[in-house]
Amino acid sequence: MVGMKRKIIGFLAARLDEPYQHSVWSGAVEEAEKLGITLIFFGGQRLESPVGFEALDNIAFNLAARSHLDALVVMTNVIGTYLTQDEILVFMNRLKKVPLVSVGVEIPGIHSVFIDNSGGMTAIAEHLVKVHRRREFLFLAGPINHNESIAREKEFSQHLKMLLGNEFILRIEYCNFQENEAWDTVGRLISQGLSFDAIVAANDLMAMGALRALAEAGIRVPEEVSVTGFDDTEDSRFSIPPLTTIRQGTCELGRQAIRSLSINLGLLPKAHMIMHRTPVSLVIRESCGCSSIPEHDFCNDQRLQTYQIGSGENSDAGVLLQLANDVNTALSRGRNPATIQYRHLEAPYLEKAQVIIAEGIARYQASLRRSVERRAAVLREIEASLVSSFALTDILSAVAAGTRTLGISACYLALFESKGITPEWARLLLASEGNKTRILAPYGVRFRTVDILPGGLPDNWKSYVVEPLRFGEERLGYLVCTADSEDRQVFEALRDQVSGAIKGALLMTAERDRERNLEHQVRIRTIELSRMNEQLREEIERRRALERELLDISNDIMASIGRDIHDDLCQNIAGIGLMAAILEGNLRRLDGPGAAEAANAAASIAHAASKTASQAKGMARGLYPAELEAKGLVAAVGELVKAAQNRSNMAITLEVSPGFTIKNSEKALHLYRIIQEALNNAVTHSKASHIQVSLKGDRESVEVMVADNGIGFNPQRVQTVGLGLRILKYRSSLIGGELRIRALDPGCCVSCRVVR
């Protein structure tokens, strides 16, 4: 195949950050790399979804259908959740201009790869009935018409009847394979007083939602209720308690899909395609009521290594050395070394192997923590670029720098020229490859969307991810990234951040264009002064409304990120800390050499996770001052001062005059943001040894003030400084306030007075 052009295969799925889909994608990537194929992930959502924004995300599927691809892998079991078999067939027929393979759903006339799920629900029913004597069951199913969900539900109910006759209770709820829907459903049933002693979910995501609802209701798992899942995703081993589930060979699905298409494309002979239905197996953990089995979660169908003591090169210390090497190899590929099997070793090598694996797991957890921290930091930087600058070039530069930090080798951003389902033309505005960044805004490079990028995809990289950019109901364009980031959750988070930032920049560009057009009209129509003055007043009002909208967008995005950091990031970090603490306890019970050192490492990880969670909460408070709504401006400013003092180690004091109150929530929010910006400027630029924040008030008005004893600056230059101070003045004007910047000897004082 020397000199041949690389084949390009599209991979249509919903979300790369969802563990099941990511596992199938990973298997496809591995096989594509072996065969010299370029693989492109087109991220969309479930077709015909009742959730409005999901339908907008499916622009990626339309793009894939029109693009110059050689073949397509379609995860029909995911994106066809809400479709009937006939509707799935209609959708697939629209893509039939190239070879197709369906993943997870057997479709007549189209090659399909899927797992034989039979026996999985039988094993769960047997285990819950015979081992844990459960009799009152809640079954969380997928969509009503979903074939896989129907099969799992039918197998479970039939086997219960075979085991127990009519001596059981079974309630079925449809939760569409979604975690939040399962959480809401279980919470609602608990509040209604429904009794059950086992929850059986048709996938792991719904089981996670059930665990969350039970924990919030104070119901103990597994003492009062057993919970099981289906899929054995990577997240299932980290739930609390670890989830008993059914393991599927998801990676093998991806590999088989690529091999099937490779035969169709002439890259492999037919002899290489040995199709088989991978059987499923029961993975027993703690959520059902069993003690944790030391199987080290041989999940995600990654290839397992087995080590035995014997004669020759593989005996004694040589086996342990090979085990250590394989742990390092797994870590270098971003995989959990818990998938390495060592149970066949004999004492004392078993204990030594356990220490090696435990150290590897601790390092893996630490790498996950660093990945989460790095992603959060980069997303904060992109959000900060939206707040500090609405210039499109600045935002594109921040995106390029952020993707490099996230381990993404290349990133391309294209915006559509027109509206519609899939516009024919787009303009490439950003091309970032390695350390080389090309900002092509404002005009960009015009190209047809069927090419995905001007001149097609570069051959330098083996796999790509295409994510749609949208804001509200507006389709903006798409983001193309190389799929080499170890963090599977980064692409969707990056997409959301970039969409908001680009929309803000486009609004600002539209505003500037409107201003320039206004100036032109004033110059050429001076003889129509009266009419033009009226147009001018209308234009100014529109500009003010737009500026207000931009600030609202900024506040909403800051609040959204703050909530995400607090609700998701902090919980994830806390979970990592808890797992590290559990790991520490397990290690301290081991007697083998190195166990104490590994336990200390796990303790360090737990301590670092706790510290990081605390820092993340501080960041969340800065972005989303929840205290402002709950406790008022004084409490929120107090937290802001405390966070700034901890961050800078600078002497910062807060002075509040007796009786200081402000009841208007809009005024309180803008005063808070004014204090936040002024305090950040003082901490960053003033080189002061002391900063004083004051909240004063009298019967008619209130005044907030930030003063420092630093180097100060000339107040006469305030009119020429950057966007930050202009935003301060604009916030002040919105609430009818008076912003003053005064020079002190030494230092500077920023104050805002507003009537009550």
Structure, briefly:
The chain has 756 residues and is α/β, with parallel strands linked by helices. The chain has 20 helices and 22 strands. Helix 12 runs antiparallel to helix 15, helix 12 (349-388) runs parallel beside helix 16 (595-623) and helix 14 (490-524) runs antiparallel to helix 15.
What does this protein structure show overall?
Keywords: Coiled coil, DNA-binding, Kinase, Transcription, Transcription regulation, Transferase. This is Histidine kinase. Residues 564-756 form the Histidine kinase domain. The chain folds into 4 domains: 1-113 and 255-270 and 409-484, Response regulator (Rossmann fold, 3-Layer(aba) Sandwich), CATH 3.40.50.2300; 120-251 and 280-313, Rossmann fold (3-Layer(aba) Sandwich); 314-388 and 491-624; 627-755, 2-Layer Sandwich (Heat Shock Protein 90). It starts with 7 loop residues before the first strand and ends with a strand. Residues 293-314 have low confidence and may be disordered. It is an alpha/beta fold and 756 residues long. The protein has 20 helices and 22 strands. The strands form 4 sheets. Strands 1, 2, 3, 4, 5, 12, 13, 14, 15, 16 and 17 form an 11-stranded mixed sheet that branches. It has a 5-stranded mixed sheet with strand order 18-19-20-22-21. Strands 7-6-8-9 form a 4-stranded parallel sheet, with helices on both faces. The longest helix has 60 residues, at 529-588.
